[in-house]
Write a structure and sequence with these properties.
The protein is mainly alpha-helical. The protein has a domain at 51-141: 2-Layer Sandwich (Glycoprotein, Type 4 Pilin), CATH 3.30.700.10. The chain has helices at 19-70, 84-90, and strands at residues 111-113, 123-126, 139-141.
């Protein structure tokens, strides 16, 4: 009797994966994906925090230039655009628009306090990743 190639016996016989083996592989891949996505999320949040700090530092420099020009801090961030040096400094950033609203990397509006309390210097504060002011993840640049 003639045997078909798929019914061979011996070392060359093909063996299919069982359903249990396939499920185990899928579960292992799902666990690895969950671990990697958690790490990626943390890295992305840390990146946005650093980007926000950099933008806030840039705006603080513009505030200092405004102070050097006018001998006072602006009442609102939109006033920064009235000084050429500030406008030039802020031309390459997208964190503040021409209406004076400054947005952080998480979509929150950054709070500008003209007198921040430390030697009457202004204070910029972002609610941070949790979008709530007054928590430990707030981002501030004095």
């Amino acid at each position: 009797m003639k045997r078909h190639a798929c019914h061979r016996a011996g070392p060359l016989a093909r063996r299919a994966f069982t359903m249990m083996e396939v499920l185990v592989v899928i579960v292992i891949l799902a666990i690895l994906l969950a671990l990697v996505s958690t790490v990626v999320r943390r890295v992305m949040v840390a990146s946005e925090v650093e980007k926000t700090k950099g933008n806030m530092t840039l705006v603080m420099r513009a505030l200092e230039r405004y102070y050097d020009d006018k001998a006072q801090y602006p009442t609102a961030l939109v006033d920064l655009f009235s000084v050429d040096a500030c406008r030039e400094l802020l031309s390459n950033t997208t964190c503040i628009d021409s209406s004076g609203i400054m947005i952080d990397g998480f979509g929150n509006q950054i709070v500008y306090l003209k007198e921040g309390g430390r030697g009457k210097r202004p204070l910029l504060t972002s609610p941070g990743p949790d979008k709530t002011l007054g928590n430990s993840d707030d981002i501030s640049v004095p």
